[in-house]
Specification:
623 residues; two-stranded antiparallel ribbon; 7 strands
Length: 623
């Protein structure tokens, strides 16, 4: 019986022949057999040691929704982010966590340096009992008897500012100077703060407005007179007065009479403007601001009084020769605008925009000299001030028609500043001859440079790049370039290569027509005529009148540094007020501290909310 073999083949055992064959085979190739056995052993050993061959691993993927990526790639990206955070992010976080000193504002430019000095001039011009921190060592108390003949004025007329190189206090230009200073502080308060002159400028304004409040009965609602000046100067006089004598203010021993006027639409209007503008400056002092605005209302009412509308200087020889007023309609427009901004009373803006006012003022007659801003002509300033209302608030009917006219007139005034349009002559050195080559040219230069800079800032504040002068499009930078060219001329970029601001630069006037600067502060009290030796000496001033801007060169850029050339070498309040305003408007100092061009809102804090806040489309502003 045979057992089955499920693998195939039989299980039979061979005998005889098979055995012989096997023996033969072994005898024939024992080496081959040995190699075969070793080969089989090697394969067996390998199978024991290595095991079966591994199957190839498959990559794992992650479905991110929008894309499928390898898991390894995700891990690689994750560790890259961690490494980046450790190497880059962590050091940055640590660095920011460490307190650092904030970078200061950029260094002051030349305009700021001149501004610091120009403000100090007002400290040197103060009259009355001076504060201990006045900062001018050669000045002392003076004029303590001023106004003693004004019996209705309690305490007299002590204080205020001396006008120029003499010791007279002219209230008309003094008030205009305070208005200009206040306007500059209102528009550029942030710049004043950034350069550290905000408190100083306000103190100077208050010194002036405190005095102006004494020039009339500011506590009353109705007045019948106002004081126009303290001191007199007779032409070619032979008796001691403010021109005949050459004395320091501290040494005055001659009579100083007051001059009162019962008709003063111009002087009253300017004092109202000064007090109203200052009331905006001092809004943080409610009591003082209210006192100023109430005084402004009283004197404005006096200025508008029927039957008292002749210029304050008319038939006043002690005034007429020095500060003669040629009109009062411009002061009406100027003061009404300031009264409206100060009080929000719409009766003032209604008056300022009454079509009869610009007609009487000849505001739209295109008269060349009426385009020049000065102590005697407020039209350009008033028109710009009222253009501000249109540009920022756009009150609409019934004011729009007159405001458009003022705005167009302002644009035309600005066109006249440019030499290319040949409205005014310029010296070869580049100074604008706004007063046609007469004395004191620089006070006109700086006042109008201020308006140019301010108008440029107004336009930029409402995103208007410029305006048209006929077919020529002029940009805000063109206006600033004009203003800078004039200030640069004053500060030394002129044919003489000298500064016309005392103490600025290396070369500046040394022989001012100024009693206080030229007379030594040596403890000696010189007589009325004893001071002539200091007037006539060729020696330089013993007292430096820091920041004083002199009258300026002639139409040929020539300048004589002599005390006898008062038209060229005498500083004035009006001149320095315009200089301060122009400098603060054009300087770039302080912008790193977040200073804006102009403060749009300060002026309107008293304006009633009857007007929309959005300005009209720029296209409607073209003249």
């Amino acid at each position: 019986m045979y057992s089955g073999n499920q693998w195939g083949g039989s299980f039979e055992i061979a005998d005889g022949a098979a055995e012989d064959d096997h023996s033969r085979n072994m005898d024939l190739d024992r080496g081959a057999l040995s190699r075969q056995q070793h080969h089989e052993l090697d394969e067996t050993q390998q199978s024991w040691l290595l095991g079966p061959p591994e199957a190839k691993k498959k990559d794992k993927y992650v479905d991110l929704g929008c894309v499928v990526v390898k898991r390894k790639l995700l891990w690689w990206a994750f560790w890259c982010v961690v490494a980046a955070f450790v190497l880059i992010g962590l050091p940055i976080i640590i660095a920011k966590a460490i307190p650092h000193k904030k970078p200061g504002p950029p260094p002051p430019d030349q305009y700021t340096e001149a501004l610091h000095k120009a403000l100090r001039f007002f400290n040197a011009q103060k009259s009355g009992r001076l504060p201990k921190n006045n900062g001018v060592p050669w000045r002392g108390n003076s004029g303590l008897s001023d106004g003693s003949d004004a019996k209705d004025v309690k305490g007299g007329l002590v204080g205020g500012y001396y006008d120029a190189g003499d010791n007279i206090k002219f209230h008309f230009p003094m008030a205009f100077s305070m208005t200009l200073l206040s306007w500059s502080v209102i528009e550029y308060s942030a710049k004043y703060k950034a350069v550290g002159e905000y408190d100083h400028a306000r103190e100077l304004i208050k010194w002036g407005t405190d005095y102006l409040l004494q020039t009339f009965n500011s506590s009353a609602s109705t007045i019948d007179k106002i004081y126009a000046q303290v001191g007199v100067a007779k032409i070619n006089g032979s008796r001691p007065d403010d021109h005949y004598c050459w004395n320091r203010p501290e040494d005055m021993a001659y009579p100083r009479p007051t001059t009162a006027v019962s008709s003063a639409p111009d002087l009253g209007g300017e004092i109202a403007a000064a007090l109203a503008a200052a009331s905006i400056v001092f809004r943080d002092n409610a009591a003082y601001s209210k006192k100023l605005s109430q005084g402004a209302a009283t004197v404005f009412k006096f200025a508008r009084q029927m039957g008292h509308r002749t210029p304050y200087s008319l038939r006043q020889p002690d005034i007429e020769y020095y500060y003669n007023s040629t009109s009062f309609w411009d002061e009406y427009m100027w003061s009404a605008a300031w009264m409206y901004y100060a009080t929000g009373n719409t009766s003032y803006i209604s008056f300022a925009t009454d079509p009869r006012l610009p007609k009487n003022a000849k505001a739209f007659f295109n008269i060349l000299d009426f385009s020049v801003f000065s102590w005697d002509n407020k039209l350009p300033g008033a028109q710009l001030l009222l253009s501000r209302l249109r540009m920022f608030l756009n009150p609409g009917y019934p004011y729009e028609e007159s405001l458009i006219g003022y705005h167009n007139a302002t644009s035309l005034n600005m066109c006249m500043y440019f030499p290319r349009f040949r409205s005014f002559n310029f010296t070869k050195g580049g100074m604008a001859l706004f007063n046609h080559g007469k004395g004191q040219p620089l006070q006109y230069v700086v006042a109008n440079s201020f308006l140019a800079s301010l108008y440029a800032d107004y336009m930029e504040a409402v995103n208007v790049p410029g305006w048209y002068c006929g077919p020529n499009f002029m940009t805000t930078n063109d206006l600033r370039d004009f203003a800078k060219s004039q200030l640069n001329y004053i500060l030394g970029d002129n044919p003489r290569k000298m500064s016309y601001v005392v103490g600025f630069g290396k070369k500046y006037p040394r022989h001012l027509h100024h009693r206080g600067a030229s007379t030594p502060h040596n403890g000696v009290k010189y007589s009325c005529t004893g001071g002539y030796k200091w007037r006539d000496t060729k020696k330089a001033d013993p007292n430096l009148l820091t920041g004083a801007m002199v009258g300026g060169p002639d139409k040929d850029d020539k300048f004589k540094d002599s005390r006898n050339t008062y038209g060229q070498n005498e500083p004035t309040l009006v001149g320095n007020a315009g200089l301060v305003a122009a400098l603060v408007a054009i300087t770039n100092s302080g912008k790193g501290a977040g200073v804006t061009a102009v403060d749009k809102n300060t002026m309107f804090s008293a304006v009633p909310p009857m007007f929309p806040a959005a300005p009209p489309p720029p296209s409607s502003w073209k003249p």
